[in-house]
Amino acid sequence: MQTTLATPVTFSGTGLHSGRPVRMTVNPAPAGHGIRFRRTDVTDGRDNILPAHWRQVEQTALCTRLINGDGVTLSTIEHIMAALAGCGIHNALIDIDAAEVPILDGSSSKFVARLIEAGTRAQDRPVRVLRVLKPVEVRKGEAWARLEPAEGFEIRFHIDFTDEAIGSQDLSLNMANGSFVRELSDCRTFCRQADVDAMRANGLALGGTLDNAVVVDGDTVLSPGGLRRADEPVRHKMLDALGDLYTAGAPILGRYVGHKAGHAMTNALLRALFEDDANWSLDVSDAQTARHLPGVGVGAHDLPLSA
Questions:
Q1: Bridge-based pairing state of the strands 73-74 and 65-67
Q2: Range list of β-strands (E), 123-261
Q3: Buried b (16+ CB within 10 A) or exposed e, 279-297
Q4: What span, in angstroms and rounded, lies between the C-alpha atoms of 215 and 196?
Q5: pLDDT tens digits for 38-80?
Q6: Interior CA angle at 196 toward 83 and 228, to 5°?
Q7: Is 92 helix (H, G, I), strand (E, B) or coil?
């Protein structure tokens, strides 16, 4: 059955790109509601509701940003979306008093820990799953992303950076049975020092610090304590992909493969998937299907030590 939070959960922090303080509360919502954000600071008569849906995503390279018909936006939703997907939460109304989700430690671990602590409540409507029926692929230059049929939900990602601290990394994981929480949720966003300098010159990354991002310079990891995992960068790209894919509006049964892909490409892939009804089906989940979904059976025992 569908689930929502048992009690509201509030987070306070700073926007990664804006550098501004933000307070966000994830509230329970009725069955069939889906994930929606409500900009409580928008009080000028414009629509302040932003459904977390692929149609509402504005193409951006650095984060996933929603925009509604009145031009109201919300940026950097991918980490909280990954946490909701990974904890199996289908319905939530998220109140937020700024234009960007707080970055916290740059991963999903703090979101996940608090969501698990709050607990979930089963609802009176079955989960519907998005089943990929045919391979769908999008490409741009050397980068590409593909969705293909699979019995469960799997993510495979490959990255290749000239910086020796990152280099070439490849990982494939099945997302069932709490795998996201254990294997990906504590992996932080990353960038090169040169990228930080360029972003700040353009008024971005104003809230970024060495405590909420992994920053590398050549063969050196500048962030205190170094990497949490040897392949933390590719794991974070997988985290981002899970969050972006959750804007499909339902858990996915299929395999996502990304090669040097990013937020904009994953959204383009969802748009390509939904262009043809022959590519997908929306099925009612039974008990056997539910075993393949990311949030089923997740508990505090799955939390990584860094959470």
A1: antiparallel
A2: 128-132, 136-140, 143-148, 153-160, 168-174, 190-192, 214-217, 220-221, 252-259
A3: bbeeeebeeebbebbbbbe
A4: 8
A5: 999 999 999 999 999 999 999 777 799 999 999 999 999 999 9
A6: 45
A7: strand
CA 85/CA 79 separation, integer angstroms: 10
Cβ neighbours of residue 295 closer than 8 Å, sequence gap 6 or more: 3, 85, 86, 87, 88, 89, 180
Q: How far apart are CA 105 and CA 234, in angstroms?
A: 17
Structure tokens at 41: 């600071």
- Least Cα distance to 293 among 235, 234, 247, 251 occurs for 251
Residue 194 confidence (pLDDT)? 81
Query: Could you tell me the CA-to-CA distances from 229 to 73, 85, 163, 291 in Å, in that order?
Result: 33, 22, 17, 27
The pairing of strands 190-192 and 214-217 is parallel
Catalytic (active site) residue 263: yes
**One of 17, 263, 292, 301 is an active-site residue; which one?**
263
Measured CA to CA, the distance from residue 52 to residue 37 in angstroms comes to 7
Residue type at position 141 = G
pLDDT digits (tens, 9 = 90+) for 26-43: 999 999 999 999 999 999
**Per-residue b or e along 193-226, where b marks 16 or more CB atoms closer than 10 Å to that residue's CB:** eeebeebeeeebbebbeeebbbbbeeeebebeee
Task: Say which residues have a Cβ less than 8 Å from residue 203's Cβ, sequence separation at least 6.
Answer: none
For residue 173, the Cα-to-chain-centroid distance in whole angstroms is 16
Q: Are 132 and 273 in contact (CB under 8 A)?
A: yes
Torsion-angle region of 83 (φ positive above 0: left; ψ -120 to 50: alpha; else: beta):
alpha
**Spans of the chain below 50 pLDDT:** none
DSSP 1: -
Q: What is the C-alpha separation between 82 and 64, in angstroms, rounded? A: 12
Longest CA–CA separation in the chain, Å: 53
* Rounded Cα–Cα distance for residues 126 and 92 (Å): 16
